[in-house]
Amino acid sequence: MSNNTYVIKQLSIFSENKPGKLAHVAKVFQEAGVNMLSFSIAEAEGFGVIRALVDDPKVGFSALNDKGIHVAYTDVIAVRMRNQPGGLYEVASKLAEASINIEYSYAFAGCHQATLILRVDDIDTAIDVIQKSGAHVLTAEELLLPGLSE
Asked: Which domain, by its residues, includes 14?
């Protein structure tokens, strides 16, 4: 399988850090019929970046763009890891050993498994390193997110 199969399109949404901005983005997605599956928010000096995985990135991107909201695609990968002490270490240490920088990450978890979303400085090498370590890099389909890898 090509490494491109594992690249997931995340929406990076840029906004002022003010009350109601997240609600506005959520409303745009609602009106467009786009489901926000996971997100994180980072802030700096009065501005924020909402990093979102959505079920239809193309529709989500267009809907935000049409409302004048600055949005960009960002390539990320998703790694299935154990949801117990040491699960994150198993992935992060392999990337560190290969001198791959984790620019940012966020995660979501269920009962026994967790999914780690990673933005790294060398996505192809990261995919290879993670797979060789025995960890599972997910495709968009495995995340049950149709359209994220297109």
From this structure: 6-74
How many CA atoms, within 13 angstroms, populate the side-chain half-sphere of residue 46? Answer: 0
Residues of the chain with pLDDT under 50: 146-147, 149-150
Residue ranges with strand state E in 3-123? 8-16, 36-44, 47-54, 70-82, 102-109, 113-120
User: pLDDT for 35-76, tens place per residue?
Assistant: 998 899 998 887 889 999 998 999 999 999 999 999 999 999
pTM over 0.70: yes
3 state DSSP class of 143:
coil
Q: Burial code of 106-124, b = ≥16 C-beta within 10 A, e = fewer?
A: bbeeeeeebbbbbbbeebe
Domain co-membership, 70 together with 15: yes
54 in a domain, yes or no?
yes
End of a domain among 74, 99, 119?
74
Task: Verify that 57 and 107 share a domain, yes or no.
Answer: no
Phi, then psi, of 93 in degrees rounded to 5: -70, -35
How far apart (Å, rounded) are the C-alpha atoms in residues 76 and 149? 10
